[in-house]
Amino acid sequence: MSELLTRRHGLEFLLAELGGSRMADPGASVTIRGDLGHINLRGRASDAGFLPPVEKLLGQALPIEPNTVSGERHQVFWLGPDEWLIVTPAAGALELAERLRQATSGTHASVNDISGGQIALMLQGAECRELLAKGCALDLHPSVFAAGDCAQSGLARANVLLALMDATPTFMIVVRRSFSDYLCRWLAHAGSDVGIAFRDA
Amino acid sequence: MQPQRLPTGGRIDRSKPLIFRFDGRKFEGYAGDTLASALLANGVSIVGRSFKLRRPRGIVGGGAEEPNAIMQIGKGAHAQPNLRATQVELYDGLVARATKGWPGARFDLGAINDAFGKVFSAGFYYKTFMRPKSWWHLYERVIRASAGFGRAPVEKDPDHYEHRNAHCDVLVAGGGPAGLAAALAAGQAGARVMLADEQNEFGGSLLGAKRNVGDAPAEEWLRRTIESLAALDNVTLLPRSTVFGYYDHNFLAIAERCTDHLPEADRAGVRQRLWRVRAKQVVLAQGAFERPLAFCNNDRPGVMLASAVSQYIRRYAVRPGRRAVVFTNNDSAYETALDLAEAGSSVVIVDSRAGGAGPLGERAAQAGISVIAGHVVTDVVGRRRVRGVQVAGWSGNPAYLVESSIRIDCDLVAMSGGWSPAVHLHSHAGGRNVWDAERHCFVPGETTQANVSAGSCNGTLSLRGCLREGNESGRAAASRCGFEAPDIELPSTSEGHENPLQPLWRVPADAEPERCPKQFLDYQNDTSVADIRLAVREGYRNVEHVKRYTALGFGTDQGKLGNINGMAVLAECLGKSIPEVGTTTFRPAYTPVTFGVGAGENVGDLYDPVRKTAIHEWHVAAGAPMENVGQWHRPWYFPRDNEDLHTAVARECQAARQSLGIMDASTLGKIDARGPDVVDFLERIYTHNVGTMKVGRCAYGIMLGEDGMVMDDGVMARVGEQRFYLTTTTGGAANVLAWLESWLQTEWPELEVFLTSLTDQFSTIAVVGPNSRRVLEKLGCSIDLDKDSFPFMTVRDAELGGYPVQLFRVSFSGELAFEINIDSSYALQMWKTVMAAGEEFGITPYGTETMHVLRAEKGFVIVGQDTDGSVTPVDLGMNWLLSKDKDFLGKRSLARPDCVRDDRKQLVGLLSPDNGTVLPEGTQLVETPDAPVPVPMCGHVTSSYMSACLGHPIALALVAGGRARKAETIYAALPGREPMPVTVTAPVFYDPKGERQHV
What we know:
The complex is a heterodimer. Chain A is of the alpha+beta class. Chain A is built from 5 helices and 11 strands; from the N terminus they run H-E-E-H-E-E-E-H-E-E-H-E-E-E-H-E. The longest helix of chain A has 14 residues, at 177-190. The chains are: A alpha+beta, B alpha+beta.
């Protein structure tokens, strides 16, 4: 039944408000990826009842290296020694969460679909490092923060998960739903000097 | 037009004249001028008035050390107070006002103060305005009006400021010869380098210098060096950028002025930018300040630092005087004499040293400059402008002069008392300063962070030394970051040896300092030699105390100009050495920074994040005013047809009690807790018995701090054998999760429990009132909702109106109620669906105010409103929640003697006999209406509302021993009114048996 329902990412109103700021060649662009689902996964990497069945089900290894992201089909972000975020197409997220739950039912693990609780924003463009530097204290120089790196940090006054998905560069910013309106307004303001455009995926 | 402008030379553009105003008068300068150089070019002698004595003052320095030319720049909202004219780049249309002197600096009514100069000594304010005490508010108004340097604009700041985080291997602070050499060495090695300089151009002392560096003129070397730096991708050049603070972990703050140098009409984009820099290595190359000399009337307009005189001649082609006396105790001022001679001024050098200067002395003689060695300037003639000086012979004994004085006519005194390295940033970073007995100055000592000082801020004054130290420190800094710099040959400089400086901290006069004209140490604060001596006579010994008593080094000065002379005079009075006396503490900011750059983009709508629920836009469209709850914006009430708050809340309350209300409760904190040890864990956290809860049951739970005080509360539900769903207060959500995680991770790591925040994942829609069951049934619910299948305080998974939801049968109103927990992606549709289905029942959305009234009628507390961190569950009457079968956090504290006192403040209800007055929240409660002042308080009102359902006001209060005082009368102290009698009652006003929520 739920597939028939329309998901709302919550930024629809803001997009309409910022719609007038579209420009031909912005220094940075933000794509709101409401089409992505999010699953919070917790378990111990050393647990034979956890890691092998999860990796088998996902068809890929979980990143064990701190602050890295891996995967093609599902993008998996290391959040802590026993915590990962799986970003996957929204349509299959509930089902994937259920299968993960079953696969880990025999051990101490936790699977929560949090697709409605956070949103992924893709930030691209020549000026996006300068834009992020206005609000993020991390060193995002390519020699320090490379493709495949992620970090939980602050952007402006919101907590975010920040990842460099490719060297184009494409950054993924994952922010809690309740902070997403604030964060997009901050991006629009901070990006006004380089030009910034917003669009829905 | 510009009488003191030289016909040629300087780094100004004579083809670009600029018009500006100072104190209402119109002047012309050139592009490349500072406000100070343009004022000097126009022959303006008086640029301000001194702080206390209102003596006329002129420009003394050439940079951050300038004490007198403190200006208000610009008008209206763009105005900036507190700027040194020496650091303000001239632009067309600039408007400046002196910040001291009324109606202006030239003619100042406050100058009368100078006639009473003896009265305005150190500690004047402390001694004069303390009595009678009741007059202080009168004094204060007058003192405040005459204090400070300029006025902050009252208009909203229209400009855009921003913050920028930056990381680098090597940050170089200061772009003079040492800084440039350091940046070049580190940059060429491949390190990520940032070079910041407070001026508009890099080059420092080499700007306008008439000397060679290597085989080329200095300016050519500068041009090539800056070009090389600009060509390096790994080097960021920041002109107009002041490194104003050096904090822990090699974190430095830089204020960049992006558009302040442009005419107001041409300014666009960011006005000022705060760079927050994390540097692996720091090279400090801020240079040194020339020291003034303390002789009588050394503050007369026309007395300047020698290096500043050279700077105005060379860099700005301005001749500050036609007949100059150069007064020095060291060789460097001889360069100034040569500059003056070349500019066509007549020059006499008065050198305190009997032996005079080294090779520079010979050059001066060749240039026809007469040198009076072994003499000092003792006094200045002239009031609004130097007209001459008194010169006397001196043998080096600080106590007396050896020869009667002669007068030399002049219009300029260029003084040099030696150099003080700018150790400010080194000191901010926690480094010590050590006295260099050979060079007679404090130099950077041990550092506590990864930084090194190079060049004249390290006490190395020669150009050769600056270039060498800069290069070496740049290479070393890069090397420590893993970058090896290529070997380069340093350019040669032609510098002869210099004769040593002769310490001269105060010039002897014909009489004791108290009996002769003032010898100023700190111009900006009117601190003289006599003031330091007075402070010592009055018992001050510590340098920090003397500073505060005499104001030495206050204001924008911050120890730049007068500090060392002041310390030395203090040392002399105390019979100690200068290092024994030490310096005062240098603190950020190095020069003043604007509030705008501090705030950056965190202003207006972006001041603090506004958290919005998934249903927020509906509330806005419905016209609900918003209330801040933590960072959340929650609808306060939903007015219909211009209703006011009270009318709307009354209507909303009645609807919820009589038919159907709906509320967005999404902001509650929500935590998924699961694992084999989750029961054990939660038993330790909550006060009630968790293990006995059956799956599907909900419980009201409270958690205590280790002090036994109520920390947070909320409904928690057992949704599986090893899985719980916890809710927290809106404001406490983040803290509670962090609190739980800290216990799990640091104290009880053996417990297998995972916590996940679901606050944003689930939206919560409370459907409240006697018709709530009917509306859910109407929507189509996959489970039976009757009271036996789905009793009070239970939770079920269900499908409601086609949406998967988690349904809670809980109530924060005392009515039959359901809370729908739904994926936030669908929450807005769900809300609209319930609204549509509820239409036939008159469904009424309500906000936080009605929620508060409904819960207060039931005596439900709000943690943080009815509690304040000093309230135990026993105080709240929640003994029934405290399990006797287990231990939990805070339990032991509840047995402390203070926690079992009978007269602790306890939660009660209050009713007023007049049935009309809603007591203000916070109202203090007293035992008797006519007790003598000070009246002892016996409690205070925590919650207070008009109850529409009951028809009278209700209040919750914390009252000492309150539970034993039911039906007693106490009094509410109301400002401006007679104390009002109120009756103590139980804290539950409505449906005390709780029947309505169980139906």
